[in-house]
Specification:
Oligomer: single chain
Distance between the termini: 27 Å
Radius of gyration: 21 Å
Number of strands: 12
Bound molecules: pyridoxal-5'-phosphate
Number of domains: 2
Strand order of the largest sheet: 2-8-7-6-5-3-4
Structural class: alpha/beta
CATH architecture of the largest domain: 3-Layer(aba) Sandwich
CATH class of the largest domain: Alpha Beta
Shape: globular
CATH topology of the largest domain: Aspartate Aminotransferase, domain 2
Order of helices and strands: HHEHHEHEHEHEHEEEHHHEHEEEH
Number of helices: 13
Length: 401
């Protein structure tokens, strides 16, 4: 397979120069598929992990104006004061929770916030609980720092809901952290308030940190109210909430995210942040201020668009032989399963080679779902229709017995 040689050299090299901890970083399944797709013509991507809608003009203007005003130096280490203030007000209004700017730190996307939170807590002898499937960063970052992970499997038949009792039962005396991600990448599942409350309450009682990745917190369909961990905890002593502008305002490349926690946690992590990236991108922190003050038109437009695509994708998956779907309530992914025992990686590769539709194999996101595929609907309705005009007849010809 024409994987770039870089992947193999970097990840599987025996070269003693590299810290063995790097071996915990898997070869990204997404890269494999996208690299292969880039060598082919006429590929339809259901593989995209970022919004396809254009960034709102007021956000772009604010970034450009910040550059023109000479806002090109470092900000304070916690972030641009105007953005910290705006976020504190925004979260206060959204979840009726009083936050001060000292509860927030601006990072280089949610990715840096996750990196800081997970690696600052993970250490040899410490145990963490992570849903499976999950966004592929969590477990490797924990393991890289010596921590061990218990993965809690979820299933398409159950809308990939997390059973809070299974999480609680997995807690051990040396458990230090539980990672939550709602809406989830790759499943689009939104955890109900009861699930979060049960886990958050038990974690607080046992002194365990909840690391909650909420980057899709505005991609919630069917008019539902989003249950954030921030609205389910009595204080911030045991929670670190991560989010960003990437998905909400189509700002993924602008790299502005944040971490919310107790003032003590933020104080500690600010020093770590200084040693990691110093500060986040200054002009685009101004773009973020404009995003928060720009009204809800963009978000409403985005929700309307993604809801229509989700509904159509759910119908098409239902019509596809051998695929079990469900109705995802958030994000822009559906994670259908194939028959038990099917090899999702082989299916994804064959699907790409034989039909030109690029999906992401389930095993990219964990060990319990190798018979699944991640389908992204961050692409036009037209592409979704065309993709299934190829997928359905191809699946009709497959025999999984
Ligand atoms: C669940 C999840 N968390 C975090 C990120 C990273 O977000 P950011 O662009 O803010 O670093 C992504 C990006 O795909 C994601 O899906």
């Amino acid at each position: 397979m024409p994987l770039s040689n870089m992947d193999f050299e970097f990840y599987e090299s025996e070269d003693p120069i590299w810290n063995p901890a790097l071996m915990t970083i898997p070869i990204p399944g997404i890269r494999k598929m996208v690299n292969l797709a880039s060598t082919m013509d006429d590929v339809i991507h259901l593989s995209i992990g970022q919004p396809d809608l254009p960034t709102p003009q007021n956000v772009i203007n604010a970034g450009v104006e910040a550059l023109q005003r000479g806002q090109t130096g470092y900000t304070m280490d916690a972030g641009l004061p105007e953005l910290l203030e705006s976020l504190a007000i925004y979260y206060g209004e959204r979840y009726q929770r009083t936050l001060s700017p000292d509860n927030i730190m601006i990072t280089t996307g949610a990715t840096e916030a996750l990196y800081l939170a997970l690696t600052a807590v993970s250490a040899p002898g410490r145990h963490f609980i992570v849903p499976d499937p999950a966004f592929m960063l969590y477990s490797p970052l924990i393991r890289m720092n010596g921590g061990e992970v218990t993965e809690i499997p979820t299933r398409a038949e159950n809308n990939h809901q997390l059973d809070p009792q299974e999480v609680i039962d997995a807690i051990e005396p040396h458990t230090y952290g539980i990672v939550l991600n709602s809406p989830s990448n790759p499943t689009g599942t939104v955890y109900p308030r009861e699930t979060l409350e049960a886990i958050v309450e038990e974690a607080a009682y046992r002194g365990i940190q909840i690391i909650s990745d909420e980057v899709y917190d505005h991609l919630i369909y069917d008019g539902k109210t989003y249950p954030s961990v921030l609205s389910c905890c009595s204080d911030l002593d045991h929670v670190m909430v991560v989010s960003s502008f990437s998905k909400t305002y189509s700002m993924a490349g602008m790299r502005i995210g944040w971490l919310i926690g107790s003032q003590g946690a933020i104080k500690k992590l600010r020093r770590y942040h200084m040693f990691t990236t110093t500060v986040a991108n200054t002009p685009f922190q101004w773009a973020g201020v404009a995003a928060l003050h720009g009204g809800n038109d963009f978000i409403n437009h985005m929700l309307k668009e993604y809801t229509a695509r989700r509904d159509r994708l759910v119908e098409l998956v239902e019509q596809t032989p051998h695929m079990t779907g469900y109705v995802p309530e958030g994000a822009f992914y559906l994670f259908p399963s194939l028959p038990e025992g099917a090899n999702g990686t082989n299916i994804a590769l064959r699907l790409l080679k034989e039909t030109g539709v690029c999906t992401i194999p389930g095993e990219t996101f964990g060990s319990s779902c190798s018979n699944s595929l991640r389908l992204s609907y961050s692409t036009s309705m037209d592409n979704i229709e065309k993709a299934f005009e190829r997928i359905i007849p191809w699946m009709e010809q497959q025999d999984f017995d």
